[in-house]
Amino acid sequence: MTALASDNLQLLADAPGGVGALRRLILDLAVSGRLVAQDPADDSVEVLISQVVSRKASVGGSRKEKLKARAAVAPSKNTLPPGWVQMRLGDLTTKLGAGSTPLGGKQVYVAEGVMFLRSQNVWNDGLRLGDVARIPTSIHREMAGTHVFSGDLLFNITGASIGRCAAVPSHFDGGNVSQHVVIVRPALLELQAYLHKVLISDLVQDAVMAEQVGVSREGLSVAKLSEFAIPLPPLGEQHRIVAKVDELMALCDRLDSRQQDAEAAHARLVQVLLDSLTQARDADEFQACWRRLAGQFPLLFTTETSVESLRRTSIQLAVRGLLCETGPSDAHATALINSIAASRAQAWRAGLAPKPKPFSQVDGEEMPHRLPLGWSWVRLGQLGVASTGSTPVTTQTDAFDGPTPFIGPGQITPGGVISSGEKSLSDTGLASSTVARPGDLLMVCIGGSIGKCAIADRVLAFNQQINSLSVFEASPHFVFLVMCSPEFQQAVLGAATGSATPIINRSKWEDIPVPLPPLATQHRIVAKVTELLALCDQLKASIAAARAKHVQLAEALVAQAVAG
Q: CA 188, CA 184: separation in Å to the nearest integer?
């Protein structure tokens, strides 16, 4: 490796994606002849080519003169070290062809039989056989053209895994491959290890991306793959290159493991310290813990994961009443509960809301934690009027393409921001849909994104996968914090039915217990959380800026190492 890269190894490794960049740099240096020193005692590359020619002739007939001519005119896109030549991949192999799928497809798979390798089994670090399919021996014999042997290379030519390449080890028991995988059989077994390094390097991977065809599914033809130019050094130099690459990749493995261990330890430390806040027994203990933590913010919250932990903990502390004390002059929450009930009854009598639903009191077993003095546990539905969304009939064409946004779960982001969907409703569509007003709370009530919530910032309509709550008198921003809290999210999942597709109906949603402080306390809590979340945003921005500088520096070092 160049001195520039080796002297800055830790900087490169610590950059986001740095170990991956190091691996690519190592391979780039290897296939361009800048990783190991040349040895004048090595047999020339012409000796190697002569051996390849002889082997290919013995396997497929005499092609000696043709191969020599092709080697001489092989295109040279890169400056090669002295003594290297550039060969087409097809000229270095005795077989280069795609597999095939047995007649009957998956229906012929058996529990015991010959391995049938598919693209998901082919990885750069080797074959992964945990989910390997198997076919009967009789079918294996019929598919003689797709037999795989030890010493082969397998190269994926379709799909998201296009370009992945595995070296078939010496202990391989034999098998077949599907049509999504190409068998690359080096003319000499000694070429396998070096060719593998070339095929997984950016030199070939960039060529794969440039040559692939297909709109909906990536694809690479065997003919194109056969024409790929391979920089070929003498065999002795290949052995030294492979040994050095393996040594440096092992170093990358250690760097990667060390980095992951450090990140895991950091995450555990942050979580323990944040947990000390949520587990404080009283206000004095909480304030002492908070002072210790606040003094270490720059050292602790150095990753996006840690900042997200701080964000979640801030919300959890808020709804437990630990961030702000309830003032002695604040009215008890029961006064607010009674006032909300009176307002709901008045709205019902005026025909502006449905008849209030009776709710049972929250008993002790339902309370996830103790509340400060002046707070009360209530049911979510006691705070306002809940609704479930609906969708106009799609055949009612005049219901759509109007001025009012129509959203589904995908338009509610985890951060509580509501994006505009592709659909909108006309006044006709609004008459058969459910409308949210600014300040109404929305929560996804079905599927993998169940629990995502937001506050409506404009008039909009929403579909049946979303519940809404129009809050009476309480602060919608405080109720939003409650809905975002871990306790509420756990309660949603606990009340949901269905394992594959969880769903919570509106009645169960309304029955979830929520903590309610006096209104003045709610406003102070919202202000404090807003301040803390702004701090989280600043921390994330600082992390992103530092990461960008780190990446730029690492990329510059890589570029210099490659150019040098």
A: 12
Distances (CA, A) of 229 to 91, 197, 409, 489: 10, 14, 49, 56
CATH number for the domain that contains residue 378: 3.90.220.20
Q: What is the pLDDT of residues 78-137, one digit of tens each?
A: 578 999 999 999 999 999 999 998 888 889 999 999 999 999 999 999 999 998 999 999
Query: What are the pLDDT digits (tens) for 280-319?
Result: 766 777 777 777 777 777 778 888 888 888 889 889 989 9
DSSP letter, residue 35: S
Residues 219 and 313 in one domain: no
- Which residues touch 281 (CB under 8 Å, ≥6 apart)? none
| CB neighbour class for 10 (10 Å; exposed up to 12, middle 13-18, buried from 19) | exposed
Residues 197 and 247 grouped into a single domain: no
Could you give the number of structural domains in the chain? Answer: 3
Residue whose entry in the numeric block shows the structure tokens 């808020």: 318
C-beta neighbour count of 371 within 10 angstroms: 17
β-strand 466-471 against 229-232: which pairing, if any?
Answer: unpaired
Task: Please check whether residue 110 is in contact with residue 133, taking contact to mean a CB–CB distance below 8 angstroms.
Answer: no
What are the tens digits of pLDDT across the range 183-234?
Answer: 999 999 999 999 999 999 999 999 898 876 554 456 889 999 999 999 999 9
Are 483 and 367 within one domain?
yes
In a domain, 222, yes or no: yes
Task: Establish if 72 belongs to a structural domain.
Answer: no
Determine the Cα–Cα distance for residues 235 and 214; give it in Å rounded to an integer. Answer: 37
Within 10 A of 108 (CB to CB), how many other CB atoms are there? 17
For residue 400, give the 3-state DSSP assignment.
strand
Rounded to whole angstroms, what are the CA distances from 200 to 27, 28, 196, 208, 290?
Answer: 8, 10, 6, 10, 50
Residue type at 52 in one-letter notation: V
Tell me, yes or no, whether 356 and 448 share the same domain: yes
Nearest to 470 by CA among 561, 375, 388, 397: 388
CA nearest neighbour of 183 among 169, 159, 208, 166: 166
pTM above 0.90?
A: no
393 assigned to some structural domain? yes
Measured CA to CA, the distance from residue 186 to residue 188 in angstroms comes to: 5
Contacts of 270 (CB under 8 A, 6+ apart): 300, 301, 306, 309, 310
Residue at which a domain ends, from 171, 198, 232: 232
Residue ranges making up the domain that contains 278: 1-42+234-328+518-564
Cα separation, 133 vs 148, whole angstroms: 14
